[in-house]
Write a structure and sequence with these properties.
It contains 18 helices and 15 strands. By secondary structure, it is of the alpha/beta class. The radius of gyration is 30 Å and the shape is flat.
């Protein structure tokens, strides 16, 4: 028998019968997928039968599968259906059988799967509906350094997420050093996202100089340079947001422009998952459900388009761009999930649900890395919960903190009761020029000193911002017009005076000297003209020429770029 001819004839007939419901997968071995139609029951999603011919088909049974069935069938239903189809295939050896198998699958579904109604849950295996390990989403993200897609200026955004009443608005106010967000102990205090400029810190080149430089935003108490970061306080999430509970996907969509997330958690266990007052709540549950909500937000969006994606597998890559992800980030996620994008057309239609869950998990880890901000860590009930979270999520970036203590210290500093600098490990009240403290305030300060500053080294609000920014590994450049004096570029057109090491640019990993030139000319207008030459001052003070395509890093980030007087078009 000419098996190849027999297989081609049957495949051609099936294509004519099923038309757009036929999806060709591969030619060697011949593999295709058929969508089940005319079902008498309403399922939660499309169902397919995947057929792969063996070499001697039809004299041996084909391989049969039901891809991504957990969106429609339970594990037991899937196993029973496959067993039924394989039995029919064995009984049909020697003849073309695929149409018979599809008809048998349709009849089995109609007889054995209960229809969905608004009062019934979709029959799903819950262990397959969620990612297998939440801790995978909280491990260190992959550093994406492909300058072709990632280089350039970085206007960094930190998103604050968490349930109502966990202290997000308090953290927001503490980080901004001003009370802009309303705070109250009830869900959805923050309805629309709040935006504000906070400051993180980086080591400054002036640390090796005789005097402090003239940094545009100043320095913190350790002499580190302060740099602005946009803080976005997203309205409180509750379990079921992906299904529309609370304010639903609107909250999740507010995360799209965030580069990293800080999950503000009530470490004291005094609020439940909905932000209502309680006692003895386990905050590890908050870590789990919030990450599941983010995972489902992306996963469900993909599954809603799965039928179209199966027909055009490369469309899946475009789906991820909708989350403000570069091609480099998307490629890194596929690679981390063990998926070869070059073979996507052949492999995607046969994916098991676990493959897609793994891909979404890796994408979240890289695109939305997260710090667990354990707020209210100074309360007595928090100590055991902090240990519980650290043990449950050993690879997570965890920061114990007290946002309310930071707000209190700033308030007392502002009102002249003590000396305190944002992020400091201590405060000073022994000064005759300070206003006298009441006994109540003295007791409160003793508590902050003993339960927060002495225990954690600071309130850790500032450190949480630093930790979040560095999850994405940005790089920093200090452009100057003179490598000896380190005088900054000319700011006169902006009405500002230049200064020593005044400017610091936050850049994406992989940014080259050429990228920096483009930023300085077109985005900041601190330079004019085309690139001619660049020199850098190394850590030891030596100067050297740097190429236009050289990637900027710690050894060449104090840099002078020389340009031609002509207008730049680079």
């Amino acid at each position: 028998m000419d098996y190849q001819s027999e297989q081609n004839d049957e495949k051609g007939a099936l294509q004519a019968i099923f038309e757009e419901d036929f999806t060709d997968l591969a030619t060697t071995p011949c593999s295709f997928m058929l969508k089940l139609k005319d079902l008498e029951v309403q399922l939660s999603g499309p169902l397919y039968v995947k057929i792969t011919y063996k070499e001697r088909y039809p004299d041996e049974a084909p391989d049969i599968d039901i891809p991504l069935r957990s969106q429609v069938l339970t594990t037991q239903q899937h196993a029973d259906l496959l067993s039924h189809l394989k039995t029919i295939a064995e009984e049909s050896i020697g003849m073309a059988m695929v149409f018979t198998l599809v008809e048998a699958a349709r009849d089995w579904i109609n007889q054995n799967v209960c229809p969905n109604t608004p009062d019934e849950e979709t029959p799903q295996d819950q262990t397959e509906e969620e990612p297998t390990d939440i801790s995978d989403m909280l491990s260190s993200p992959v550093e994406v350094t492909d300058s072709r897609n990632t280089g350039g200026r970085w206007n960094f955004v930190i998103g604050l997420v968490g349930k109502p009443s966990a202290g997000k608005s308090t953290f927001f106010n503490a980080a901004l050093a001003q009370n802009q967000a309303k705070t109250a102990a009830h869900p959805f205090t923050t309805i629309e996202p709040n935006f504000g400029t906070a400051y993180f810190s980086v080591p400054c080149p002036c640390a090796k100089m005789d005097r402090r430089c003239e940094a545009a935003y100043g320095h913190n108490y350790k002499g580190e340079r302060l740099l602005p970061v946009l803080l976005k306080d997203v309205a409180g999430l509750v379990p079921g947001a992906a299904d529309g509970k609370g304010r639903g996907n609107r909250f999740l969509n507010d995360l799209l422009d965030a580069d990293v997330l800080i999950h503000i958690i009530d470490a004291s266990g005094q609020t439940d998952e909905n932000g209502e007052e309680t006692i003895g709540y386990d905050p590890t549950k908050d870590v789990r459900w919030l990450n599941i909500e983010i995972h489902r937000w992306i996963y469900d969006n993909i599954m809603n388009k799965w039928e179209a994606i199966v027909k055009r597998p490369l469309k899946l890559l475009d789906m991820f761009t909708g989350y403000h992800a570069s091609r480099s980030v998307i490629q890194a996620a596929f690679t981390a999930a063990g998926i070869d994008t070059r073979k996507l057309v052949e492999t995607l239609p046969g994916w098991d649900v676990g493959v897609l869950h793994k891909l979404v998990t890796e994408f979240i880890r890289i695109r939305f890395p997260m710090v667990l901000g354990l707020n209210k860590s100074d309360l007595p009930e928090a100590e055991n919960n902090i240990q519980r979270i650290e043990e449950a999520y050993p690879n997570a970036a965890v920061m114990s903190m007290s946002a309310l203590s930071e707000c209190k210290l700033q308030e007392l500093q502002r009102d002249g009761f003590l000396h305190y600098c944002y992020g400091e490990p201590s405060f000073m009240t022994d000064d005759e020029f300070l206003r006298p403290l009441s006994s109540t305030t003295t007791v409160e300060l003793d508590r902050i000193q003993n339960n927060v500053l002495s225990k954690f080294g600071s309130t850790n609000v500032h450190n949480a911002l630093n930790r979040a920014v560095f999850l994405k590994s940005p790089i920093f450049a200090f452009p100057v017009k003179d490598l000896d004096t380190l005088m900054s570029l000319d700011h006169r057109q902006k009405g500002e005076a230049p200064g020593v090491l005044k400017d610091c640019m936050v850049l994406r990993p992989g940014t080259t000297v050429g990228h920096l030139h483009t930023v300085l000319v077109h985005a900041l207008e601190l330079l004019k003209g085309s690139f001619v030459r660049a020199e850098a001052r190394e850590i030891n003070g030596d100067k050297r020429v740097v190429r236009k395509d050289e990637v900027i890093g710690p050894s060449n980030n104090v840099i002078k770029i020389m340009t031609s007087p002509k207008s730049s078009h680079s």
